[in-house]
Design brief:
Blueprint (H helix, E strand, L loop, with lengths): L6 E5 L4 H12 L3 E6 L6 H10 L4 E5 L5 H15 L4 E4 L17 H28 L3 E6 L22 H20 L5 E8 L8 H8 L10 H12 L10 E4 L6
Parallel strand pairs: 1-2, 1-4, 2-3, 4-5, 5-6, 6-7
């Protein structure tokens, strides 16, 4: 029970990584708060977890780009559980045009995706940071990416409909620097802020892409969501209590 009843808010908890994060937090003794802009997207998952962990789990809608929504969630959870220990910034807001090749990306779409994603991570970190400062400490973990630290390997995407969106690279590199800024700002307030940057995560990609990607790795290749979740547990726990302002890369050697 390494998390020992820590109250942990996970944004984007209805997504691929979010569900894995929730499961591992609960399995390690934490109290998991699943937030998403629309929790109905994961209703079957929520119902299942509620049965298994009725006293350790809570789900609520929250919009990371809306200050009243964030503060309402903070007030609700802190009243319900007596406080909040950790925030995991995992939400992945994007508009309907996200993911185009660079030639087809409009200025408006680029700006909107940067604003909602980076802006949302800023706003949640700001509001939770204020709460943590007033309550004698806390822990913020942002989910970044290896493509926040290195140039895309576009050759992997040949003969597929996939690409690395230019917005993605800008967003994830911004999040890494935002992490360092918040860590420095709150360093004297007993608030840790770190970034977890995974490599590619398996999600029904074409086999040809997976083979090409894996050729850059050490032994496993593309990750399972659990591989990322296991590292998150370390950053949430007191085992990492002297780590702040860092970007921890988990990618089986892809970025070497």
């Amino acid at each position: 029970m390494i998390l020992n009843n820590k109250v942990i808010v996970v944004t984007g908890g209805a997504g691929l990584l979010g569900k894995a994060f929730i499961k591992e937090i609960l399995a390690h003794g934490g109290i998991a708060i699943l937030t998403d802009i629309q929790t109905s997207l994961a209703q079957d998952f929520i119902d299942e977890i509620k049965v298994e962990y009725p006293d350790q789990f809570y789900a609520a809608n929250m919009d990371i780009t809306n200050k009243p929504s964030i503060n309402s969630l903070i007030k609700d959870v802190s009243k319900r559980y007596g406080g909040i220990d950790c925030l995991v910034n995992n939400a992945y807001p994007k508009n309907k045009n996200y993911g185009k090749k660079i030639e087809d990306v409009s200025y408006e779409d680029f700006s909107e995706n940067i604003s909602t994603h980076v802006g949302g991570y800023f706003l949640t970190s700001q509001q939770f940071g204020i709460f943590f400062k007033n309550h004698k400490g806390g822990n913020i973990i942002n989910i970044g990416s290896i493509y926040g630290t290195l140039a895309p390997r576009f050759e992997l995407y040949k003969n597929t409909e996939m690409t690395v969106p230019v917005e993605y690279a800008a967003i994830k590199s911004s999040i890494i620097q935002l992490t360092k800024y918040f860590a420095q700002y709150f360093k004297k307030d007993n608030i840790r802020v770190n970034c977890l940057s995974p490599g590619g995560v398996l999600d029904n990609q074409p086999e040809s892409f997976v083979r090409s990607y894996n050729s850059f790795c050490s032994k496993k290749g593309m990750l399972e969501p659990l591989d990322v979740a296991n590292t998150l547990i370390f950053l949430l726990s007191d085992s990492s209590k002297f780590i702040t302002g860092q970007n921890l890369i988990v990618d089986d050697g892809f970025s070497l």
